[in-house]
Amino acid sequence: MKNNNSILITIVLGIYILIGAWYFQVFTDYEVPSRILAAILGVVITAIITQLLLSSQTTKEVTKTSLVAMHCKPKNLDSVSAAVRNVISSVCPSDEKSR
Predict the structure, then answer these.
(1) Is the pLDDT of residue 35 over 80?
(2) pTM of this prediction?
(3) How far is CA 15 from CA 27, 33, 44, 81, in A?
(4) What angle do CA 94, 56, 45 make, to 5 degrees?
(5) Which among 63, 67, 92 is positioned nearest to 80, based on CA atoms?
(6) HSE, side-chain direction, 13 A CA sphere, residue 99
(7) Helix H segments across 1-99?
(8) Cα 59 from Cα 12, distance rounded (Å)
(9) Which of 1, 57, 66, 85 minimizes the number of CB atoms within 10 Å of its CB?
């Protein structure tokens, strides 16, 4: 419920700001729609670029992990896995306790 209230307050404040900008002639009538469209387009382009960067980063991480596993002999793979577990437990000790 609190999240819905904050969204509603944000929308109302945005409308008040637009009305105030129009009343004090900060923007002309023709400028406001183009600025809103430009802002929406900027958000969409940023989201697409972020998605592409994150997916390529994930692909690189998976490839790196599989390359480490591929170049280790089976008996060494257990020691690599144990070393990875030690690193994770030292960096994220709260995750280990929750299990």
Answers:
(1) yes
(2) 0.43
(3) 14, 13, 21, 55
(4) 105
(5) 67
(6) 5
(7) 2-23, 31-70, 74-91, 93-98
(8) 42
(9) 1
